[in-house]
Design a protein that fits this description.
single chain; mainly alpha; ABC transporter involved in vitamin B12 uptake, BtuC
Length: about 290
């Protein structure tokens, strides 16, 4: 791949898949107004990463993924049910879950690091800020496999997913239960976040999920186009961050990916405004009033 070393090529492919999956899942999350839920999920995954690390006796991606998935799903359940059983508003529940779970994760990381059993920072920087270069080849294959499963699930449920995203109330009025699909979308969002942790990190993963989708939304009103473009932009941002990090190890891959995604958003926003201004000027100049009523 353009003369790059084999390991770099594998990492770039893996991170591109992570970015593409983030763009796809992020489109549904953005349209369903679940950006804050995604933020809570990302921070809630940290204690699960620590639990998986401890149970495995060291760095073990499958165990850490399983732990992050477990705590992430618990966070989803709490966010959805706290407003139902108390007077807590949804945004308050999200903020509370985010803070408590992330606080627990920080405590667990410090306990593991200070235990003397594992040594050093125990590799948690990779999950906090993203470090795709530390991934082994088998880890990247695992990430790629999960990403492909998520994409396949979205393809199989595409028509119903679109209907739930844009008019869930109509489906419910027709007697169609959306509860199962709603949980499926939350599961896919959790999976996308968990899988993206080693490449992007807890702190930055939500930006990669939302920003490409927001950028794509400015480019088209057709859902299929928005979905595909979000996947492409996510892949570009994620792979670019990993590549920049490989050039200079002092550059966190997650932060670099988010900066690339944000740059694409700003360029798209500026271009869109210029196009709209020119279209408005053209419409005004060609109007009958501008031509003396002729």
């Amino acid at each position: 791949m353009l003369g790059l070393p084999y390991n770099t090529t594998v990492v770039l492919i893996g991170t591109a898949l992570v970015g593409a999956m983030a763009g796809l899942v992020g489109t549904f999350a953005m349209l369903r107004r679940r950006a804050l839920t995604g933020d809570a999920l990302a921070h809630a995954s940290l204690p699960g990463v620590c639990i998986g690390y401890y149970l495995a006796g060291g760095q073990n991606l499958p165990m850490q993924f399983a732990g992050a998935m477990a705590t992430g799903l618990i966070a989803v359940w709490l966010v959805r049910n706290l407003p139902r059983v108390s007077k807590t508003r949804s945004e308050t529940a999200i903020a509370g879950v985010l803070s408590v779970f992330f606080g627990a994760g920080v405590v667990l990381t410090r306990m593991i690091q200070n235990s003397g059993k594992f040594g050093g920072r125990a590799g948690f920087d990779a999950f906090l800020f993203g470090s795709p270069g530390s991934l082994l080849v088998q880890d990247v294959y695992l990430i790629a496999g999960v990403c492909l499963v998520v994409m396949a699930t979205l393809m199989v449920t595409f028509r119903l997913s679109v209907a739930v995203t844009f008019d869930a109330a109509f489906l419910q009025s027709q007697g169609v239960s959306t509860r199962l699909l709603d949980w499926l979308h939350l599961l896919l969002l959790t999976t996308a976040i968990v899988v993206g942790l080693p490449a992007i990190g807890v702190v930055m993963i939500v930006a990669l999920i939302i920003t490409p989708a927001a950028t794509a939304r400015m480019c088209s009103d057709r859902f299929g186009v928005v979905l595909g473009l979000a996947a492409v932009l996510g892949a570009i941002a994620s792979a670019s961050g990993a590549f920049l990090s490989s050039l200079d190890t002092r550059v966190p891959a997650g932060a670099a990916s988010v900066l690339v995604a944000t740059t694409l958003f700003l360029v798209t926003l500026a271009t869109r405004r210029v196009v709209l201004l020119r279209a408005t000027d053209f419409a005004v100049s060609s109007s009958p009033q501008a031509n003396g009523g002729q």
